[in-house]
Design goal:
Layout lengths: L1 E4 L6 H9 L4 E5 L18 H7 L3 E4 L5 H12 L3 E4 L5 H4 L4 H7 L4 E6 L14 H7 L19 H24 L4 E5 H8 L1 H9 L17 E5 L5 E5 L3 H11 L4 H4 L6 H6 L1 H13 L3 H10 L3 E4 L3 H4 L7 E6 L2 E6 L22 H7 L7
Parallel strand pairs: 1-2, 1-4, 2-3, 4-5, 5-6
Antiparallel strand pairs: 7-8, 8-9, 10-11
Length: 370
C-alpha cells in the first residue's frame, strides 16, 4: 500500500506508475482538492493532467493538521509500504510527517521526498515549477532554434523526477527484501534535469563550450537533422556511422564521391562543415516529393522520422491505447509504456475528490487497528 500527500504532476506521476504495477495508492487531498484537477477540462470535462496521473487511486480528503486527523493518517501510514510527499520543503516535518519519524513508527516503511531543489541549501525554498527548472538547469539554453530560447513541450523535469522516484522506491523495496528495513529516498526536479545535462556540462567545463541551440539538428552529429521535401514536408534523418554515410551518399544523394570528400569524410569534419553539407542534402530533398524521398531513404537504409503533429501522432500505427472511465464516458488513453505480465488492461477510473474518504475512515478507524 502506498500513501501519498501529493499535488500537481511531480509525485502523482510516480504513484501513478506504481498504481499501474498493481499498488494500492491512497492520495491525501485538501478540501478544495489538488489544483491539478482544474488545470484544464480537455479530457471529457476533466483535467488532462489529473486523468493521466491519477487513474485507479483512492482520493481521501483529510486535513492532517488537525490532531484527530493526524492520528488517523499515522494509523494508515503504519500499515503502508511506501509514503510519498511533495509538499514544500519542511512542510511535512512541521505537520509531524517527516520521513525519519515515520520510519521510527513503521521500520519497514519506504519514504520518498520529492522536491524542486532538494531539502537543504539556500535555493531549497524556491518554487520549482517545470518551466522554471528547465530554465535554471540550462535545458532552455540548449533547446529550440538559434534565434530564440524554447521550452521542451512537455513537463519533462516533473516527469523525470517522478521516474527517478519510482526507480528509487522499487530499489528500496528490493533492499527491504534483504534487510527487512525501510529506507528513505529523495529526488528533486533540479537533480534529474542536471543529470540529463551531463554531456553539455562536460563540453562546457572541459571541452570547447556547451552546444548552442540547433533547432532540429544534432550539435555533435552530422548529417542529423530536418530537411524539407518539394511538397513541404519535413523529414529528419540520422546518420550514425561511416557505413551509413556511404550508403546515404550512394543511394539517396546518388553521388558516392561526396562520402570521400575531405570536408565530409568523418563525422568531425561533417560537423565542422555542416553548412556546406546541409546545403547539398537540402538541395536533393527539395527536388523530391515526400513519397519519393521516403522511398529513397528506405532504400539507403538511413534512419529517419517524419515531423508529426499531435493529430498525426494519434494516428501513428505504433500508438497503443486503453480505455479509461472519465465521468460517464470512456476515454481512450495512451497505454503505459511498460509492457509486462501485470499489464492486464485494467479498466480504471479517475477518483472524484474525496470519493474514498468515508470508506477509508471506516477501514482505519481505531477499533480496527490491532
Amino acid at each position: 500500500m502506498v500513501v501519498s500527500i501529493e499535488r500537481d504532476l511531480a509525485a502523482p506521476f510516480c504513484t501513478g506508475r506504481l498504481t499501474e504495477m498493481g499498488a494500492r495508492v491512497i492520495r491525501i487531498e485538501r478540501a478544495e482538492g489538488d489544483f491539478a484537477r482544474v488545470y484544464d477540462d480537455a479530457a471529457n470535462g476533466v483535467s488532462s493532467y489529473f486523468v493521466w496521473t491519477n487513474r485507479g487511486k483512492e482520493s481521501f480528503v483529510l486535513d492532517f493538521k488537525q490532531d484527530g486527523n493526524a492520528a488517523l493518517l499515522h494509523r494508515i501510514v503504519r500499515k503502508a509500504d511506501v509514503f510519498v510527499q511533495n509538499l514544500a520543503p519542511g512542510a511535512a516535518a512541521r505537520a509531524g510527517f517527516d520521513s525519519a519519524s515515520l520510519r521510527q513508527r513503521n521500520p519497514r516503511l519506504i519514504t520518498c521526498d520529492i522536491s524542486g531543489y532538494g531539502e537543504e541549501g539556500e535555493v531549497s525554498s524556491l518554487k520549482a515549477y517545470d518551466l522554471l527548472v528547465q530554465c535554471e538547469r540550462g535545458l532552455a539554453g540548449i533547446s529550440d532554434a538559434p534565434e530564440a530560447y524554447g521550452r521542451i513541450g512537455v513537463s519533462i523535469c516533473d516527469i523525470g523526477a517522478d521516474m527517478n522516484a519510482a526507480i528509487a522506491i522499487l530499489s528500496a523495496l528490493a533492499l527491504r527484501e534483504w534487510t527487512g528495513k525501510g529506507t528513505g529516498v529523495s529526488v528533486s526536479l533540479f537533480d534529474g534535469a542536471a543529470d540529463w545535462m551531463t554531456i553539455p556540462y562536460l563540453h562546457e567545463i572541459y571541452g570547447k563550450g556547451a552546444p548552442t541551440r540547433q533547432g532540429l539538428k544534432h550539435p555533435s552529429v552530422a548529417a542529423y537533422g530536418a530537411y524539407c521535401t518539394r511538397d513541404g514536408h519535413d523529414i529528419v534523418i540520422s546518420i550514425q556511422n561511416e557505413r551509413e554515410w556511404q550508403q546515404f551518399c550512394t543511394v539517396f544523394l546518388k553521388n558516392s564521391a561526396i562520402a570521400s570528400n575531405p570536408r565530409f569524410s568523418s563525422n568531425t569534419e561533417r560537423v565542422r562543415h555542416r553548412a556546406d553539407l546541409d546545403a547539398i542534402i537540402a538541395q536533393v530533398f527539395s527536388g523530391l516529393g515526400t513519397d519519393e524521398a521516403l522511398a529513397r531513404i528506405a532504400a539507403s537504409n538511413t534512419a529517419y522520422g517524419q515531423i508529426r503533429s499531435v493529430a498525426a501522432m494519434a494516428q501513428q500505427p505504433a500508438l497503443r491505447t486503453w480505455q479509461m472511465q472519465v465521468g460517464n464516458h470512456e476515454v481512450p488513453m495512451i497505454a503505459p509504456p511498460v509492457r509486462a505480465p501485470w499489464d492486464i488492461q485494467r479498466f480504471e477510473s479517475v477518483p472524484m475528490l474525496g470519493e474514498y474518504t468515508l470508506a477509508l475512515r471506516t477501514e482505519f478507524a481505531p477499533a480496527t487497528i490491532s
